[in-house]
TrEMBL record:
Domain of life: Bacteria
Keyword set, alphabetical order: Membrane, Transmembrane, Transmembrane helix
Signal peptide: none
Transmembrane segment boundaries: 7-27, 84-104, 111-130, 156-187, 199-217, 253-277, 289-309, 315-333, 342-359
Protein known as: Glycosyltransferase RgtA/B/C/D-like domain-containing protein
Length: 477
């Protein structure tokens, strides 16, 4: 890659940060970034052992530590937090281009392939959010590129950092080991015994040390890893019977298939399946075997674990597989004469995927596309409306991830906090981005009326009041 290309990625990274600097902490990152980061900022950046049980999720506090470090140097703010993502966005773009360059040599096709992969809705959403996914993806593709190019030193660096971002990073490390093994044995047709060499064993042992040290430290200090003692987030492995497990497993399979095909990816997935089947006699499968292996096995342990637990994992957990499948779809386009038309359709469908908004009763991956963008300005307008009409935030109920202090989302030192919803509160701050249960939706429908609604591009925020308190509604603007 030359300086011109690096300069372009630098400008794109800066543009992403400038565009997203008003976007607050969202979903799990309120905990991973804001709450844990704020504690470390106030009590010592590396003071991991005293993180309170109420906000301790067991994962390595990589994101929280990163943010606390940035706040200590540059000041605690939302903008600083987004700039802390900048080096990882830039590094990811660089590694993604290198990944594409391994398979595609012509510059024009490299650019087109990069555009298609870049426009995956889940990737675009991760770019604008403060989150660990871009960090993990950077280290993932750094490692994957080192595997493809036989660079042992970069492989060690990539795996070492990937394993301490989150537990999912450790699962990605395991997936990369399988990818490395299959490339060696299936694609390069080498004997398994030759893969299990002193060099390979040392490489993976050294790379595993940071994760092993963290796990050992964690168990010795806290005594647990994943299953929270207070079960704040429920018990992911609790089933009433074997039939209950099988029923949940079947549901998880359907959810997993939906996640891979959501936000327009269904067109790319069907195109890949259709092409590999109908042209199975004419295409050289070896040309696509790398990407098939990477797409399927890089997140193998993540979706394997996800199928076994009560609640499935989010769309973003399979991001690296989505991107590999997008590149595979692009490469398969060359099997057809109508290349421009097929490419244009795939790109258009992916971009339109950012406008997909499901009904309120359907749990949507709101952090997995750009559909959430209108929410942030609507939220500010709704809070301003509450202030103007003297509706107290501390007496207003809301839902995850908004049932917390304003500061935890906006990092603006506004300590006023929304209450968790119980159905007894006079006021409710509701948005369709909160993915409510059917029971809570029914309570809102029966017991509350709308004072004020804010809406844009099918994203809504509604301020509600209990129906038996509607006399108070008369004074609202």
């Amino acid at each position: 890659m030359n300086l011109k290309q690096l300069g372009i990625f630098l400008l794109v990274s800066i543009a992403i940060v400038l565009f997203s600097k008003h976007i607050g902490l969202f979903w799990d990152n309120v905990l991973n970034g804001s709450k844990i980061g704020t504690y470390l900022y106030n009590n010592g950046i590396l003071n991991w052992s005293t993180i309170p049980l109420a906000i301790d999720n067991g994962h390595p506090p990589f994101l929280g530590t990163l943010l606390a470090t940035g706040w200590t140097i540059f000041g605690r703010s939302l903008e600083t937090s987004h700039w802390m993502m900048f080096p990882f966005i830039l590094g990811f773009l660089y590694q993604l281009y290198n990944f594409i360059s391994f398979f595609i040599k012509k510059k024009r096709y490299k650019i087109l392939a990069f555009i298609l992969v870049f426009c995956d809705p889940t990737l675009l959403s991760q770019f604008v959010l403060i989150n660990p996914e871009i960090i993990q993806s950077f280290f993932f593709f750094l490692t994957l590129n080192s595997i493809l190019k036989n660079n042992t030193y970069l492989k060690i660096i990539g795996l070492s950092f990937l394993g301490i971002v989150m537990f999912r990073g450790m699962m990605l490390c395991a997936g990369l080991f399988v990818v490395d093994l299959l490339i060696f044995t299936v694609i390069k047709r080498q004997k398994l015994i030759n893969f299990i060499s002193k060099k390979v064993i040392l490489t993976y042992l050294i790379s595993a040390l940071p994760a092993l040290i963290y796990i050992t430290w964690r168990l010795s200090i806290k005594g647990w890893l994943i299953s929270h003692p207070l079960e704040i987030w429920g018990n992911a492995t609790e089933f009433s019977s074997f039939n209950d497990f099988l029923s949940n497993f079947g549901r998880n399979v359907l959810v997993l298939g939906f996640q891979f095909s959501d936000f327009g990816r269904i067109i790319l997935l069907l195109f890949i399946i259709f092409t590999l089947y109908t042209k199975r006699k004419s295409i050289k499968l070896k040309n696509y075997s790398y990407l098939l292996i990477i797409s399927i096995f890089s997140t193998f342990f993540i979706y394997g674990f996800s199928l076994m637990i009560r609640n499935t994992m989010g769309h973003r957990y399979y991001l690296v597989s989505y991107l590999s499948l997008s590149l595979l779809a692009f490469m398969l386009v060359r099997e057809y004469k109508a290349k421009k038309t097929i490419f244009s359709i795939m790109l258009t469908v992916l971009l339109l995927g950012n406008f997909v908004v499901y009904s309120d009763s359907f749990a949507q991956g709101w952090d997995a596309s750009l559909a959430h963008l209108p929410y942030w300005n609507l939220r500010k307008k709704a809070i301003s409306y509450m202030d103007e009409n003297k509706i107290k935030i501390n007496e207003t109920a809301s839902f995850f991830p908004n049932a917390t202090s304003i500061d935890n989302i906006e990092l603006n030192n506004d300590k006023r906090s929304f209450e968790g919803f119980s159905g007894k509160e006079m006021y409710v701050f509701y948005s369709n981005v909160y993915n409510l249960t059917d029971d809570n939706l029914e309570i809102l429908h029966k017991n509350y009326s709308i004072i004020k609604s804010f809406e844009k591009n099918n994203v809504r925020i509604e301020l509600m009041i209990r129906v038996n308190k509607t006399a108070h509604n008369n004074g609202y603007k």
